[in-house]
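Course assignment 3, question 2. Fill in each field.
Student: A.L.
Task: Predict the tertiary structure for the chain below.
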Amino acid sequence: MLALRAQWTDAEDRFSLALYGDNVTNNRYRTQVQYNNFGIGNVWSAPTSWGVQAGIKF
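Answer field:
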């Protein structure tokens, strides 16, 4: 799994802006396998997600 993050912070360390991506290669894998009377259940990993984050310090 590959996660990426790029962040800019101003010289006074007050403002910040970041772009990020989680699971950017979109690899899917089982996080849980559950056995019961009806068969086998699987829980899969989260798909690719992207986002933007902004911050300000007071």
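Instructor remarks: The chain has a mean pLDDT of 93. The longest strand covers residues 15-22.
Grade: pending
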